[in-house]
Amino acid sequence: MTFTGKDRPEPEPDRVIELYKRDVDVTLIRENLKLTAEGRILKLAELQRFAEELRQAGQRLDRHSVLLEAVAELERIVEELGSKPPD
Questions:
Q1: Among 23, 24, 44, which Cα is nearest to 32's?
Q2: Which end of the chain has the smaller Cβ count within 10 Å, N or C?
Q3: Long-range contacts for 47-53 (Cβ within 8 Å, ≥24 apart)?
Q4: 6-43, pLDDT tens digit by residue?
Q5: What is d(CA 42, CA 35) in angstroms, rounded to the nearest whole number?
């Protein structure tokens, strides 16, 4: 245990935190800290707009998938009706 100049022991590093830290790209953190507070807020707003675009694209894809399933079901029904002899 090492001591700081204020006669307090310096805490031992947490092993779990140290494992996570090795995978952190500190260059991104440094680049973000170079921005002004306003710059960080603008960057966050841009990220939120992008996230909203992704969410909307996912919803459109879901609706498209539902329509494709409905068309496939209708085609199956039409085929089934077409294969039955008339009454």
A1: 44
A2: C
A3: none
A4: 777 888 889 999 898 888 889 989 999 999 999 999 99
A5: 10
Token output for 44:
């966050």
Helix (H, G, I), strand (E, B) or coil at 25: coil
Integer Cα distance of 54 and 45 in angstroms: 14
Nearest-angstrom CA–CA distance, 7 and 20: 29
pLDDT per residue as tens digits for the range 37-62: 999 999 999 999 999 999 999 999 88
C-alpha dist (Å) from residue 57 to 3, 48, 64, 85: 55, 14, 10, 44
